[in-house]
Records
---
Amino acid sequence: MALLVGSFTIGAILALLALGVLISFRVLAFRDLTVDGSLTLGGAVTAALLVKGAHPVVATCAAILAGMAAGATTGILHTKCKINGLLAGILVMTALYSVNLHVMGKSNVPLLAEKTILSPVRELASEDASTAILGWEVQPQELLVLAFTLLAVAAVGLVVHLFFRTNIGLAMRATGDNPQMICAQGVDVGWMITLGLALANGLVALAGAFLVQYQGFADVQMGIGMVVLGFASVIIGETLVGSRQLGLLITGVVMGSILFRLLVAIALRWGLNPNDLKLATAAFVLIALVLPDLAGVLRKRWKG
Amino acid sequence: MLEVQGICKTFYPGTPNEVRALQGVDLTIEEGSVVVVIGMNGSGKSTLLNAVAGTFPLDRGTIRLSGRDMTRWPEHRRAALIGRVFQNPFSGTAPTMTIAENLALAAQRGRWRGLGRGLGSRLRSELRERVRHMDLGLEDRLDNPIGTLSGGQRQSLTLLMSALVKPDLLLLDEHTAALDPRSADQVIRLTEEILREHRLTTLMVTHSMHQAAHLGDRLIMMVRGRVLHDFRGAEKQRLRPEDLLARFDDVRRAEQLDESAAEMLRTMYV
């Protein structure tokens, strides 16, 4: 059961990452690979500041700003320097690896006694207390952390939803939908892409900040494969809600992220070698991307 | 008022694909005047429109609109003063967004876009009235994605969007060329209505001799990146489609003569 609650919590944290990927991948139609670097950047900045004694809220906000800067860099490389979007993301992601090492000073920073944004939540219950829910042994502390994370994700999801109904949010959606049209409506497409990538990577870095404070350490490798994970969550989310309407998609993507975590936990429980996790994730995304086309082809063949 | 002075543009200069699309075009359009541009393929008529819209930088010349020199303005900045309808009916609207959202985007053309609500209830009812006024029966489908509509409906809405904030200049780039005849008629009727109602300064490219003869108060004919004929006032009103076709035949004959004459000279002297 502890495993299940933990999976839920990590799934909820990574829903923030998925929301970021939703903005770049679906709203802007930009395949942004910065994510692998900016998630770690968010974690690294948070850990480094917490170790220096900064307030957890300050550290988390700093992480968001760092992520936004990373996203904006990718955007500027793409729009001003005319570099292919994928390549711009890869360049920033690669550069961030060194940046992250510098920020942390070493490849792994443990948070031992440092106060995190989750500490006040954990202190609401004692550490060794445990209750039984439906016959399962559960630590109230972990449940509180899960509840807090879910609330935070819901709040962020709501903000994202409201943002895309503002004037600037509508313009951003149109930028991904039809750049020619929105340019003719007087919007600078390059600036819109840059701003969108900054927001997306700000969310990704926020996920990194939360993750580090939840698991109690930052690691320079923690971002590897995260962009694929984000794609997986978005794809699951779209399948769950069966709609391209943004409000529903946001809900779907959060559920998708949590569901994917649960699937991973179950697979590991059934004996999936943890080393094969990334391979399985990549295979899953591949299948999800190919399946709709394949289904169409097969349907046509059966009919014909 | 639009003032175009001596604009030149050569695409792919110095390569075998070199195209001298505009070779010194001068054109002044008075406030409220509707100018129709015709010409054969490759005559530079669409290039002229795109030059005014700011799709590419010019080699030479200046473009002023309402007294402001916008030669060096990027495309999106010019869009604050210019309304556009494209040839492709899918170019002017964002397909996955709803009709209402598309219109709301156009209602902010050239204005600061901040964190204010994009589609409030007041704007919504105002847009609904505008759509009802068009008489397409779309006022009850405002929340449908615009991508579910036909090309003609989308082009009509693009037209409405281009005039939602009154532009200093309206650019119509063969905006009925990709439509079936019935939709094309409908869009042309709507065009006339909007031009009359708002008295918009307009530059309209068309391939239809019928439209060219019947629309607008001035007509220019472009050949090889230059303005060859400029019909105004009573002369424009007298023009019939057959006259225009005859002019085109003249041009074609003149060009054939040019080439055969050049060939003759080459065989004689080279």
---
Amino acid sequence: MDTVPDVLRGPAKGRPGDEPVVVFDDVHLAFDDKVILEGISFQVYPGFTKVFLGASGAGKSTILKLALGLLAPDSGRIWVHGVQIDRMSEQELLSVRDSTGMVFQEGALFDSLTVGENVGFKLYEETDMPLDQVRRRVEEVLGFVDLGEHVDKMPSELSGGQRRRVAIARAMAFKPRLLLYDEPTTGLDPMTALTVDAEIIKLRDLEGVTSVLVTHQLRDAFYIATNAATRTATGHAVSPAARPKVEEADFVMLRDGRIVFEGSADELRASTDPYLREFLS
Amino acid sequence: MSGVVEWLKGALLELQEYTRLAGATARAAVTRPFYWHDFVEQLDAIGIGSMTVVVLTGLFTGAVLALQSGFTLDQFGARPFVGRLVSASMIKELGPVLTALMLVGRVSSGIAAELGSMAVTDQINALRALGTDPVRKLVVPRVLAGILMTPVLTVVANAVGLIGGWAVSVQNLRVPSGLYWSSVVDGLFMEDVWMGVLKPFFLGFIIVTVGCHVGLRTRGGTAGVGRATTKAVVTASVGVIAMDFFATQLLLSLLF
């Protein structure tokens, strides 16, 4: 497969020497006559966060599905982990997905499996990892999201927030380098949403996972962009991030399938564009 | 006119996607990985799970066949031949078709509803995101289990149907038991038995592949799942009747 051409590496946003994890180059997609995405180009660098904002139907979730190869673009090119994926077959994509996890809207947990079976699904089904090691990894990631005691429950026995955290645990169980979050806090009350935000921050800062986040919850988007997680003697803590860390999060505003803004949290807040002002108000 | 064209385009698209799924299933069935656990689970769900409905259907079909044909045969003084009529009708035609239609109601609809629910809640996409091919994990075990269990269930329905016919013949028609069973055997040729055993393989294929195809293409939330279930039952029922005709034609040309 082609490697990412130099011209598409974009502004020197990443750390020196870092290759972009995700590159979209002039991606177009339409379903019948309805244009979903039009000329979408961006890069995401290792350990950074890219937050897609926009109204419902703006094409945000479609970007995640394209990045995971669940959809193919009509035109344009997409690289993930340096591999061009836009024309790959489903079989070729299965191996590319080994290093990419996705947290779906509403969690998309398998409702016939227990929490533990959900979290260890990929390890049980798609690897030769011994069962005791899988169980240890499942306990480890469920402990990371503070749901260790729920391992034998069915998803229907959990609250909405707990289900999202199980979905995060499932996506991180096989240690992906890139995580895609599709509306991870939609439908949750503000306090529960904060616990989900904290898991996203912890994964990014403590595990070094690159994050691409789609949301229309501004409060959560800014919280994730402007806070950082650190290890403490008792575990970990989430607190306001220093400026260089805040600069590692980019916001992208979509409108009718086009990018109308790309910049940092401060640039977004300072924007005078009427559409952005209305969206932020 | 444009409505007809749109309908035709939609029908052709469905046929194309159905053929594509059948091809992908055939390829996945003969290559690794194979999900044995899911296959065994489906053998149990389709085979053992459908046993009650198939037994009851077979029993009452055999019984009513004996009842109806007994009185008709009386007009020609041929009541002792009732076993011959029950066995020929049951094993060649009614056993396979009625068993298949019962399985459409239970299996096609169940598969469409289950896979449809998974599709509308993104669980199918979640499978793909976790590196699992939904065709291998969900479709292949169901298709193989359906193809294998439909003939088994048909044989059970036939056997129970003959017993139902025997009960009515002995109790209502006063035909001696020995005469009934010898008439049953006289009425059957080996080719008929082959026809009755081979046809369900074709019907089983239709029952499960239609359920899987409709389920995986479900859109539109819970209302969509309801529509998919109805569509699976209607399409698979018509498919079973149509396949019965073509399979019978094929087997007649091969066996006779």
---
Amino acid sequence: MKEEHLLLSKVTIDFPTANGPFRALDDVNLEIKEGEFVSLIGHSGCGKSTVLNIVAGLHQATTGGVVLDGKEVNEPGPERAVVFQNHSLLPWLSAYENVELAVKQVFGSQKSKSEIDDWICHNLKLVHMEHAMDKLPSEISGGMKQRVGIARALAMEPKVLLMDEPFGALDALTRAHMQDSLMEIQNDLHNTVIMITHDVDEAVLLSDRIVMMTNGPAATIGEILDIDLERPRERLSLADDSQYNHYRAEVLRFLHDRHAKVAA
Amino acid sequence: MSTQLAMMFENFRFGFVENMIKFVKGTSMQSKIHAATKNLLLSLLAVGVFLMVWSSVASQIVTSLGNVPGPAQVWTQAVSLYDEHVEERQREQAFIERQVKRNEAKLAKNPDAKVKIRPYTGKPTYLDQIWTSIYTVITGFLIASLIAIPVGIICGLSNNIYTAINPLIQMFKPVSPLAWLPIVTMIVSAVYISDDPLFSKSYLNSAITVTLCCLWPTIINTTVGVSSIDSDLVNVSRVLRLGWMTKVFKIVLPSSIPMMFAGLRVSLGIGWMVLIAAEMLAQNPGLGKFVWDEFQNGSSNSLARIMVAVFTIGLIGFLLDWMMLQLQRRVSWDKGATVR
């Protein structure tokens, strides 16, 4: 693992409002190693998505910045692919065509037609969607849409994969399936991943580190928890694992004791 | 014994389930037919009530042109309008045949003789008027769409351009077509001067008037459709670093097609209403002129003939909208559109 793959340095962001600037994030510092899976967890409205959007380049930090492999991030780009919460597939394109749009854009000049086709199929296979390649998003379930969204992001061969509550809109069983799939893919590809989640189990199960954020306004990183569980991880055997439950309890304590959300 | 019983029971149960499945499958087909029949009956019922109310009310109102016609008289006039059309066509055919024979005879006598071919100058029949109106409205609508869709896209993409031309759109949108008509007429007769005109002036006047009224709903709907594109899809295009052209053609346009079609359908509906009024006012050929002529004519059949025109106008308006809907279903990814 190479050190200092992705660096967030003193990231602060102010959003202009009618009553003057609103400070959403204050002095966020984070170093992420290559191949690391990092979860951001915190109460809703604490600025998790803002952190992700700044890394993606969709938002610009007011002060501070993001450095990826020694280059500052100033704009969005396919080397920081995003999996959006509500899949964001183009509804008029089939699963295959949605991935194709990304692959053609990123590799259009480097790969031949058949290589592009192979690469699209390969990525759809990775998320177990090869059987529904020609279906429109409206014809497949929520979980399947999210799989295609992940395939689209993976197909860009990103240096960092950014996932904004990728399974938040799915039911519990589908979510568990998707988490297992994601771990499987992660075992093969060793992507650097930043994932936002609300779900404590999801965070502990998937992550190498969990970044816990304080409540906004002026949210920042409260604590970072290293998850030292062996991979591959298996949800059933971990359910009784004392170490796993200890990590779970740590996150829960942070969220509900030390940084309890004031009832809105 | 007990196992036999159990098997019998099993068979019975299995058969029962199978029958249930058959029954349910059968009913799904049957229920479709049932629903279709129900809808048809409901529509027929409404038409029946309408015809009854119409005929009972009509017979009690006496105008200077006689009784207001009931359904029966209107039907008679519809048939007679069609017969007149057939008759007129036969007359035209006969005229052309006579002319051909005469010219052949002339040429047989003297191969160098100059033959004149005169066009038939009978008055347009009801079906001719319908056809004139249809292609006029389609011309006006197509011109309007060719202008309005690009303008709408540009307005949707650029807030500055939208802000700049929005006052113009808002001001011209509520203008009645009939206010445009005199101006259009004057301008066409001043500008469109040709010895061998490809289109008649009246056709241009009507079509341009339709265009002026068809522009606005399409511009506004396209603008809204383009500017209200889902921000997640915009983010996708930003992450992919799509070029401007790719972004517009792969993301912006497809996502605004449903709104665009909503605008086009409103436009075509307005255009059709406007055209009839314009034809009445300007005496341009078409269904509007037919209505006006019958009104001026004032025979005992006139009201019934106008009623035929009313139903024709309604039916064609409905068919035009239905055609747009079919086109929309073909072009758009959003299959939820229905006739409303």
